[in-house]
Amino acid sequence: MAGDYETIVVTPQESGFGAGVAGLDLRRPLDPAVLAQVREAWTRHSVLYFPDQPLSLDELEQFTLQLGPFGVDPFIKPMPGRPNVLELRREPDEKATNFGAGWHSDWSFQAEPPAATLLHAKVVPPVGGDTLYADAYRAWDDLSEAMKTMLSPLRAVHSARQAYGPNGVFARETEARTLQIIVSEAAEATVSHPLIVTHPVSGRKAIFASPVYTVGIEGMTREEGMAILRFLFEHMTREDYVYRHRWAPQMLTLWDNCCTLHFADGGYDGHLRVMHRTTVAGERPR
Ligand code: SIN
To answer: Which ligand 1 atom lies nearest to the CA of residue 131?
Structure first.
């Protein structure tokens, strides 16, 4: 599964989904040839993790910008003076559910969802706090031809309402949360994307839907759409397709929102967890 990389050392997971990258200092701008190797590894493995990268916020922003312009992060208050960085901080005594504890692809309710998300670990709890990633390429590849034919022409409806709308989970929560969520009517908006997308770089097909942000299928009744979506959500998040990422302090991950879902696992009550997150703008899914 490993490719030929002249400068970087890429160690893929056994499945090929997810890979560690060593041999780089991300505090400095990457040479274009090295950046091309990182992009190649990312295209091949969808989720990359870079251990031992003690990045300042400026350096995190600069590495993000080497991959493309910042994406737009709605509904969450960014770090003071850093409009493109979110601090995902959960205090040891916090009782609210950890942020991201539902399978999703970041901001898929946008007309042009972010191509990439970068997450940099500042404080990692001694137990729990893993991030799970699901491979939406393999989930597609393994479907029967009859199912692929049925799903291919469909468009899925995405919305932020279940999370950030006035009746969403954040509006209804009763426990205090450090992360400042902005509940808004704007979250009620919907956008439709192809249910099956073709990745703009790899050319591979992937299922583009998630339980947090996909709320129906265009032209179908709610019952019909949800029956198909429930099947897909269960299928996509089967253990076979999931890579469980264990963090270490100063580790950076980079994932592809077009062909993966992710889920922030809990299990660290009583411990601090702090992550810094940026996104890279993407294009309209096709
Ligand atoms: C997220 O959903 O972006 C958060 C992931 C994490 O904190 O592990």
So the answer is: 8
Reported as half-sphere exposure (CB side, CA atoms, 13 A), residue 188 has a value of 5
Per the document, the length of the chain is: 286
Alpha helices in 71-204 (DSSP H): 136-141, 145-151, 161-164, 169-172
Q: What is the pLDDT of residues 17-75, one digit of tens each?
A: 999 999 999 999 999 999 999 999 999 999 999 999 999 999 999 999 999 999 999 99
Q: The pTM is what?
A: 0.97
- Three-state secondary-structure class, residue 155: strand
Q: Is the CB of 264 under 6 A from ligand 1?
A: yes
Three-state DSSP class for residue 45: helix
Q: Which two tokens stand for residue 173?
A: 């929560």
Distance CA 20, CA 189 (A): 37
Question: Which tokens is 192 given?
Answer: 């439709």
C-alpha distances (whole Å) from 182 to each of 161, 163, 222, 253 are 12, 10, 27, 26
CA 213 vs CA 54, 97, 105, 168, 229: distances in Å:
33, 18, 8, 11, 11
Name the residue at shortest CA distance from atom 1 of ligand 1. 100
The answer, yes or no, to whether any atom of ligand 1 lies below 6 A from the CB of 275, is: yes
In sequence order, which residues have a C-beta less than 8 Å from that of residue 26 and are 6 or more positions away? 50, 53, 55, 59, 63, 252
- 100 token code pair: 């991201």
pLDDT in tens, 174-217: 999 999 999 999 999 999 999 999 999 999 999 999 999 999 99
Contact call for residues 68 and 115 (beta carbons, < 8 A): yes
Query: Does ligand 1 come within 6 angstroms of the Cβ of 163?
Result: no
State in words which class domain 9-280 has.
alpha beta
Nearest atom (ligand 1) to Cα of 98: 7
Task: Show me where the domains of the chain are located.
Answer: 9-280
